[in-house]
């Protein structure tokens, strides 16, 4: 994908964010009007923090289209919000098998690793995300925070 290459080598953070948004729009295209509608409803549920409803829509989307990586990734995000890290890991595993360049899923994996007190694995996940999107400020901030905690503990 040309956009992923552009994202990787883009030195301007604002321009990189625009490219990332284009990539995410492409990844969100399921090819099915039904799945797209379910995803829209799921996003509305997520925005309203109605995670149960959003999970219902995502469960249906995954049942109808198990090879649609974005549904797995979005469902993982809900599980993270609900602190259900085991289910988040399972969904991230599926998402990354289907789309191994999904830097958002690697970011989410880093969050799970942090939450389960595995900072070294969190850093690895974050660094993997940065190989695709080096300008991703959230990821850079998380790595800096983890490294400063490690530094503080070693003093």
UniProtKB/TrEMBL annotation:
Q: Does the keyword Repeat apply?
A: yes
TPR repeat locations:
69-102, 103-136
InterPro entries the record matches = ChAPs, TPR-like_helical_dom_sf, TPR_rpt, Ycf3
An annotated GO cellular component: cytoplasm
Protein's name according to its UniProt entry: Tetratricopeptide repeat protein
Origin: domain of life: Bacteria
Mind listing the UniProt keywords for this protein, alphabetically? Repeat, TPR repeat
């Amino acid at each position: 994908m040309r956009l992923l290459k552009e994202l990787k080598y883009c030195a301007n953070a604002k321009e990189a964010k625009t490219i990332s948004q284009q990539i995410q729009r492409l990844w969100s295209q399921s090819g099915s009007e039904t799945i797209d509608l379910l995803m829209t409803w799921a996003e509305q549920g997520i925005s309203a923090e109605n995670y149960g409803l959003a999970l219902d829509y995502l469960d249906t989307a995954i049942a109808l289209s198990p090879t649609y990586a974005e549904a797995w990734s979005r469902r993982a995000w809900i599980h993270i919000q609900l602190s259900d890290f085991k289910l988040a890991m399972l969904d991230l595993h599926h998402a990354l098998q289907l789309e191994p360049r999904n830097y958002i899923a690697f970011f989410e994996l880093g969050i799970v690793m942090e939450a389960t007190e595995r900072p070294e694995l969190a850093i690895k996940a974050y660094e993997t995300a940065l190989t695709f999107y080096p300008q991703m400020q959230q990821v850079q901030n998380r790595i800096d925070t983890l490294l400063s905690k490690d530094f503080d503990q070693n003093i």
